[in-house]
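# step 3/5: fold
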Amino acid sequence: MRKHIRTSLTLLIVALAAASFMLVLPGCAGGSNDSPGKPDAVGNRSADGASEATQGDVVSTAMVAYANGDQVLFVDQETQTPYIPTEIDDATIIVDGQQTDEEALVAGNIVQVTGNGIMLESYPGQYPGITKVEVIETGSPADAEQYADIVDTVFAAPDQSQVPVGSLSYKTDQADTSVVLNPYEFDWQWQTEDGQTSTSQVDGSAADGNGTLNETIVDARIPNAIDAFIAFSVNPTSLEIERQPLVKGETTKIDPQSDGEDVPCTLGDDGTAALRIEPNYLYEVKATFPQGEAEYAFYTIS
């Protein structure tokens, strides 16, 4: 369907993954070092100092560039790569030898980070596989001021005129994957600095009248039914998800006469939606935000 654009809009992608590529963090793999004359490799250590090294763990060192509750930004001290520990609330946090939570982290802390070493390639990076964070040097907030420009970029207040960008994240046996979801339809309004109300609208569809999918709709390659997560650059107030089965053929399409079915999802307090996805479906996501509504889509193939 031809899109009708009343106001031009450039989507800004700052903190979401731009592709499903992955980076492996530099660091020491946990385990023993059998070379004579060399100490054991650095591994996990518990609060009482006992070794908890696990084969395959990757240990790296980072500075806490920003910490405010569950909003945390690390900067790897070897590569100077900024990244967000996206599942830090599931990790073990050690401060002053005691187990605590991420709210005890302070800007300037030097931390030893243990995880699977797989970072999603985005800006900043996203590291969902962290299992442990231990403060090894207290430091001070002044030490983190060198990263002030990065922090301002990552945690800047969102531009109200920009329609949020989404991301679909899922994990298979082969990889942790994140793909960008751009809106194909939206109705948006916001207040300008002089107090005026501006509007922007795009009419579109995930598939044309013959059922052929819009070429901008991204795919998710999954071997079977798996858990997935959808997040946005601005937290939605509500979310509706519907799916339709794909039709076998030379092109990716749906039966335009078939009825869609609702997909159950859970919208968390952090704005992330959890759902179950299966191969060979088109999923359409309608998100409501304070400034309006937007629709996104992706399809799954095995």
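# step 4/5: annotate
The chain has two domains: 21-154, 158-301.
# step 5/5: archive (pending)
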